[in-house]
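Suppose you are handed a protein chain with no further information: no name, no annotation, nothing but its sequence. What can you learn? This example shows the usual starting point.
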Amino acid sequence: MTLRNALCAATALGLFAGGATAEILTIATVNNGDMIRMQGLTDDFTEKTGHTVEWVTLEENVLRQRVTTDISTNGGAFDIMTIGMYETPIWAANDWLVPLDDLSDEYNADDILPAMRGGLSLDGTLYAAPFYGESSMVMYRTDLMEAAGMEMPDAPTWEFIGEAARAMTDKENEIYGICLRGKAGWGENAAFLTAMSNSFGARIVDENWVPQYDSEAWSNTLNFYIDLMNDAGPPGASTNGFNENLSLFQQGKCGMWIDATVAASFVTNPNDSTVADKVGFALAPDNGLGKRSNWLWAWALAIPAGTQKEAAAKEFIEWATGTGYIELVAENEGWANVPPGARTSLYENANYKDVPFAQMTLDSILSADPNNPTVDPVPYIGVQFAAIPEWAGMGSEIGQEFSAALAGQQTADEALEKAQAIATDVMESAGY
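A reasonable first move is to predict its three-dimensional structure. Written in structure tokens, the prediction is:
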């Protein structure tokens, strides 16, 4: 252990010493790689605080359902929940979350990237601390791009992506030019396609909350996506989410993958990825209309208001989302594998500036604007979702229709007709 880290550990011990009795914290989290890594390092937290942790690790769609049900019914199953930018301000407004306005000076909440802090706050008060932050970007095989006789621009158009994907596809050898989310869910395919639709000039609703899925822009979005996936995507794409596409890319079966920037450390890790030394990065595509198709998200840790273990839960949040945890991961697994996108200081750290995807990740995060996500004005906040309570149910239903269209069970236009009907019913029922 370096002197600096020894001092950090001693400081942490001093901070947490003399606190309440040791607690057992139950934490609900998503089965993404960074969270799995955190579980493997939790002994460090226990050594510093005496508290132990029981993990409930769930697939993304299941996690969303479980924590939403638990917190809305005051179930009390969890002391800490992994949630995101969609849930945080809505749940905070319902008084369902403990405010994080009294974290220690050593934690330095002001170091959190403004984009992340803003999305995880209500009226200027932080209610969830970002474990990592992300946008989305293009990850691509440099060798396949070169073999296709093409060169990826830093800021590609969808037209270029379509051309490159088809050129890189070799289905006989199980190489597919592009892998994109098809699994139904408001945070899965509906999130991807909503972000994509922004670059085509589409909107979820117009300024008067009238649904816009019957627009030409949405038709262009969904038809382009389905045609591209039919021509250059892997079989069974309608059931592929983040983890499934990550696995395909690591196996060398995807020429391109447009997804969360956080995936960069996994596709470039030689222990897990067969193409680790052949990966390049670019901004998410656009259509020249002024909006790219990248989203903005943070997986963050929040404390449900019903917990009896608030003090210990705050200690865990400080441990897991502070700069000390970043250094712990760097020591154990290298700087490329630290949780990205949450803290300004990470991008000022000389050790991190050499990570090949660091700058593209930051550029992608900074280019997403949840307050002005679309070409034409909208009344909602959110890039890949509308930050209204009804979106989770509505987006999931619409995602089912999009997934069915990708699976060939209906046409894109039939899916959009159903999406329009779903959204109209929801908007009218909710009184928008």
